[in-house]
Amino acid sequence: MLFEVWAPHAEEKVTLRLEGEDLPMQPVQGRAGWWFAEAPARDGDRYGFALDGGPVRPDPRARRLPDGPDGLAAVVDHGRHVWQRDWPGLGLKGAVLYELHIGTYTPEGTLDAAAERLPELAELGVTHVELMPLCPFPGVHGWGYDGVAPWAVHEPYGGPEALKRFVDTAHGLGLGVVLDVVHNHLGPAGNHLPAFGPYFTDTHHTPWGSAVNLDAAGSDEVRAYFLGSALAWLRDYRLDGLRLDAVHALADTRALTFLEELSAQVDAVSADVGRPLFLIAESDLCDPRTTTPRTAGGLGVHAQWNDDFHHALHTALTGESQGYYADFAAAPMAALAKTLTRVFFHDGTYSTFRCRTHGRPVDVTGTPAQRFLAYAQTHDQVGNRALGDRLSAGLSPGLLACAAALVLTGPHTPMLFMGEEWGAATPWQYFTDHTDAALAEAVRTGRRREFAEHGWAEDRIPDPQDPATRERSCLDRAERGREPHAGLLDWYRRLIALRRTLPDLTDPDLAAVKVAYDEQERWLVCRRGDLRVAVNLGAAPASIPLGGGGRMVASWGEARVPGGDGLLHLGPESCAVLARS
After folding, report:
1. Known binder of ligand: residue 246?
2. What CA–CA distance (Å, rounded) separates 419 from 313?
3. Known catalytic residue: 245?
4. How many structural domains are present in the chain?
């Protein structure tokens, strides 16, 4: 077997330790900084590299870290896995995504336990499961955004073989699988990359410290490292797409950006394997160039999260106006209407939160609606709240049903956050399992200090390191059979079924979407072809002018089809989907 490592920081020698035996490595001719050795090895054999007689460290490209980020790597023979499905792939057109965290989706917190629950999602009607990050991090439980080994699968989740079993099970049920990957930073503990080479640079700084080196000296190999990691998920694990965390934090001044390069390579792999593959970016730039095709001068990412839709919907539902919600809270129904028809609320407008203009308009006449994801809740928007409270903690079932109607019948690609479909009462809180005591205390005190600045008593903020914080965040499936959860779950099923069967709901033409609303009475109507989706977020009944009759396709709460007066009568916190007669 050939062992290779990029270690330009080695001054004299690199040693391979394989199953307790030390073997000298040789420089690779014509590849500066690369070292190699050949030795017999089989799946599961432990190995690592020592630079200049220093400590043995795991392979930066380790496919498995059975003892965690500070232990030796293990050889993984991907050819040993016998795939059970001949999967044709599943693209984004008509998709409904479901964001899922392995560590809290079940009490067991493993990929195998989650796989056992996948029939529930197939029955719900979603098309893709979007897994939060799976890369190894110190400890057992965490969100996953402090991963340190972007080629490997967190061992407590089950490791590489468990991910393959999960993907096989999902594909057997007709579900695609998307993985959230983090290229903008690595975790603070267990990160051995700086010992090997210039993986990070002080040329740029990010909220997490020195930036990943995408454009300074040595960045060719660093970019190849992260590009290779991304493509390995798609090839080795047969994933259908990747969600790219916070791409606005990728400091990259090169003419050919990392995102363009990644997009081009993913498209090439897609052509090679003969199935659709896609990238979804998280970006707060409100810049349509992120998803504009490369041939038209864009970055070529296939879709992006749209937080502006979330913020508009959240303020309309809750009335909250703190922080970045302030821009949307001044006229939330108008903000919601704008995001439904023009995608971004900030499209060159002034942002009071940022104290500057922000964003760029989307060309709605030529941009398919499916490039933008819409959602009422995500791991960020729930977990980054002080108590990790979901919308269900403060809203009535009626308002939750209205939110579902706007997300699942809207023009953009819908995404749900796990448990949302039944109005889960469990919170989803910020939890960690740092093994470094000093780091654990820093995280604990830092989070409490952060929320204390916003008026929260420190003793009310959950301790991220307390195992009970993670346990509280695990879903309680017993809720699914009780009201009002059961009724809400049925409503989500009906809406997703409508999206699957009514072509108007997946029409990609943004310019064809029409919205009317009343800011004071708090109602809104969205027209999608021959369908009209009406919500009344107010506490009083609403009489909504539709200009004609119609057939009730689905409704929540009090709803009466328009009569001769052309008025749709909706009760408080009610919604309806109507078709032309």
Report:
1. yes
2. 19
3. yes
4. 2
Instruction: Note whether residue 260 is domain-resident.
Output: no
Return d(Cα 290, Cα 370) in angstroms, integer.
Answer: 14
The SS3 call for residue 281 is: strand
- Return the DSSP state at 96: -
Helices (H) and strands (E) in the chain, counts: 15, 28
Domain assignment of residue 11, given as a range? 2-57
Q: Residue 358 is which amino acid?
A: H
59, 261, 282, 463: which one is catalytic? 282
Is the peptide bond between 484 and the residue preceding it cis, with omega within 30 degrees of 0?
yes
- Contact 334/517 with Cβ under 8 angstroms? yes
Question: Would you state the pLDDT for residue 178?
Answer: 98
**pLDDT reported for residue 206:** 82
Determine the 3-state secondary structure of 552 from DSSP.
Answer: strand
| pLDDT value for 449 | 86
Residue 132: DSSP 8-state: P
- The answer to whether 309 is a known ligand-binding residue is yes
Task: Identify the segments of the chain with pLDDT beneath 50.
Answer: none
Q: Token pair of 396, please?
A: 């009535």
pLDDT digits (tens, 9 = 90+) for 85-134: 899 999 999 999 999 999 999 999 999 999 999 999 999 999 999 999 99
Q: How many residues does the chain have?
A: 581
* Strands across the sheet containing 26-27: 2-6, 34-38, 26-27
Judge whether 423 lies within some domain. no
Q: Which candidate in 245, 287, 420, 421 is catalytic?
A: 245
Tally of CB atoms within 10 A around 545: 13
Helix axes 397-409, 485-501, angle to 10 degrees: 20
391 annotated ligand binder:
no
Q: How confident is the model at residue 166, as a pLDDT?
A: 98
Residues near 424 by Cβ (< 8 Å), separated by ≥ 6? Answer: 390, 392, 418, 475, 476, 479, 485
- Whether 41 is in a domain gets the answer yes
247 is in an annotated binding site: yes
In the block, residue with structure tokens 């001068």: 297
Neighbouring residues of 31: CB distance < 8 A, sequence distance ≥ 6? none
- Give the pLDDT score at 116: 98
Residue 561 resides in a domain: yes
Q: What is the DSSP letter of 80?
A: G
| pTM for the predicted model, two decimal places | 0.97
